[in-house]
């Protein structure tokens, strides 16, 4: 008999969902919809990414991302620059106005992470992180490299911030 409470997939999914909900509760003060703060978080990891690459990372359709980036650009948080190697493509960059917002996001993410890991000694926290990074590397290798946001040295593994 399979026990979902002992399944890596179920546990990782449940923990990710709960981390996102906890972060969302805190992030209400930012007055950004979840899709926007997720896009900013991913963009902070891969500044200069093509729109299509960001859409893949966020697992949304390119047209949905285009509208999302339009709103972020109107808010002065993101700028599109032509891709020098592809006249049809744009690369995305954060503006200076996005930096304080991202700093606050990382503070909220740290509070979320601390709440999630309360009671775990530092050595077990590090072991958990290293184990998840190992699993991630295995899966990226299996996929043949994935979408490019799987670099093991990066601090965040999903758009919920560095929770």
Automatic annotation (TrEMBL):
Region (Disordered), start-end ranges: 140-163
Keyword Transcription (UniProt): yes
Keyword entries, A-Z: DNA-binding, Transcription, Transcription regulation
PROSITE patterns xrefs: HTH_MARR_2
Listed SUPFAM superfamilies: Winged helix' DNA-binding domain
InterPro entries cross-referenced by the UniProt entry: HTH_MarR-typ, MarR/SlyA-like, WH-like_DNA-bd_sf, WH_DNA-bd_sf
GO biological process, one term: response to stress
Gene Ontology molecular functions: DNA binding; DNA-binding transcription factor activity
Domain HTH marR-type: 5-137
PANTHER family per record: TRANSCRIPTIONAL REGULATOR SLYA, TRANSCRIPTIONAL REGULATOR, MARR FAMILY
Protein's recorded name: MarR family transcriptional regulator
UniProt source species: Minwuia thermotolerans
């Amino acid at each position: 008999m399979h026990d979902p409470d002992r399944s890596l997939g179920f546990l990782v999914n449940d923990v990710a969902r709960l981390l996102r909900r906890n972060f969302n509760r805190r992030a209400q003060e930012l007055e950004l919809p979840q899709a926007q703060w997720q896009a900013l978080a991913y963009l902070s990891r891969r500044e200069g990414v093509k729109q299509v690459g960001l859409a893949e990372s966020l697992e949304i359709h390119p047209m949905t991302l285009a509208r999302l980036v339009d709103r972020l650009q109107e808010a002065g948080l993101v700028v599109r620059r032509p891709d020098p190697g592809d006249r049809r493509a744009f690369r995305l960059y954060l503006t200076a106005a996005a930096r304080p917002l991202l700093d606050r996001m990382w503070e909220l993410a740290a509070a979320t992470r601390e709440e999630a890991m309360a009671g775990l000694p530092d050595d077990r926290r590090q072991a958990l992180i290293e184990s998840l990074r190992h699993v991630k590397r295995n899966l990226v290798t299996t996929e043949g490299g994935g979408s490019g946001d799987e670099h093991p040295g990066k601090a965040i593994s999903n758009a919920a911030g560095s929770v």
